[in-house]
Amino acid sequence: MEVTGTWYLVLAAMLFTIGAVGLLIRRNPLVMFMCVELMLNAVNLTFVTFARMLDDVGGQSVVFFVLVIAAVEVVVGLAIIVAIMRRRPGATADDIALLKG
Amino acid sequence: MDTSALLTVLAFERPPIDWHAVAPELTLLAVGALLTILDVVLLERGRKFMAAAAGLGLLLPLIPILTLAVDGTNRSMFGGAFVVDEFALLMKALFLVSGYIVVLLSTNYIAEGDFWESEYYGLLISSLMGMVLMASARDLVTIFVALELLSIPAYLLAGWRKRSLEGNEAGMKYFLMGVFASAIMLYGMSLLYGVAGDTRLAEIGEAVGRGDSLPIVTLGVVFTLIGFAFKVSAVPFHTWAPDTYQGAPTPITAFLAVASKTAGFVALLQLVYVGFYGRDDVYGPMFWVLALLTMTVGNLIALRQTNIVRLFAYSGVAQAGYMLAALAVAGEVGDTALQAISTYLVFYAAMNLGAFAVIIAVARKTRSGHTQSYGGLFEYAPGLAVSMGVFLFSLAGIPPFGGWYAKLAVFKVTVEADTWIGYSLAIAVAVNSVIALYYYANIARQMFMNPVPDGDTTPIKVPFSLAAAVAITVIATVGLGVLPNLVAEITEVSLLAAGG
Is A31 on the interface with B (CB under 8 A)? Predict the structure, then answer.
């Protein structure tokens, strides 16, 4: 059986769904954060697959932008998580609920 | 590396750069870098004038914007990925002026808080640079980079009160919802790239508008727009907004509520008008649902808020709904909807920034955000109370203040569309304006009719920069409301004519 581009697109869609569902149901901020990375990498896989199918280098260069910006997001996200963990060790997303209404 | 690849690399020619067109962004970059370096070199000594320097630095890029506007030609670079036209210039100027007012609001708030650090202004300027870039972005990658450039500093600014749990929570919620939204948007963009084989909006417009609607096109359009629905806090993607607004420093709340929301609308307008214009069978119904939900839910929840910042968060959600209503009929009325939304954004910036300026001034004395702490404000701070009255009635859409003209523009556009989508939205806008009047008037009643809750009628000391912010926004709200033609003239922009 030949592996075609569609396989990769389906794989990317599955990874994206796993990431999105994980973000919504998991309660540990770090795991939620990892789920976002999973979604972003599903996007990268889609871009690369389409670039290969269309024989166009543009889609591959998008991946560099996504990777760099994902790294920047990690820095900011971890800084915020560290600030929370300092004050409340072991906090989950459910504990971070002072503001509501 | 083989020879042919090496030859390709050597044969690379830098695309021509129109330095005049990128001058606003470059000026802002220089100002931001200079402020950051000054902070490192001067440390404590620099703190006295950092706010003033940031304020002046934000006004500086208005000079190239003015020369570009006088020049008047549309400039396009990198194959149409970066475009400077009237729409872009108008929005850039709006971002910079809003940013300047946010600096005025921040000056004393940040200097007197226990979280004073000069990086604040550097982050604010880099966020504004993302917004200024967004106004010119006509390419998926440019839009994505501009979005992240404006969002990432904003995550840090929202969590600026790092020693308070509320501050942390505000930053965390904004961050998680923000990256979730940008991941969804990126997935939509990757699908659009697969359909069009190009990331430029104009090319996408051709590929997407052609022929029947494929599921992949629908999914790409919807996902990309949802990413920005988070940014403009449209229901059901608004859940982060009230919590983040309440936990963030109030000047940053004003920044998120006005500048960040405007940036979201600028991106939506560019995507809809340049990228997806032929697909109004997809975005029309989508914005119809979003607009109806956003207006109604925003207003109904605002009715039972007792914290003034949360109340304005939900009021801001509802205001976004009015603008989405105009976007829903974009396919029928063309550039008229674009002009109505641009007008709305200008007035929205003036009245909302002004309202937050008064909230900050009052909180300096009462140290409370409860709506009841506004009781009897007129007795001891008549100037602030009258200004707040102006902003409240402007937000409610009562003539002669600016808001009525903006609301009228949106109402006219939805009726002009002459479809069931348009008429149903026009009715919803009218009904919601009445609901909104109730909670706006409630605050006015507190200020003018109720007694002072604790009997303390010492006047509020308003620092100069805050007073200047209130004065500028009052003049803008009243002046532009009396002379709406001034705004109508500058917002006579078009995204369809240029063709991207």
Answer: no
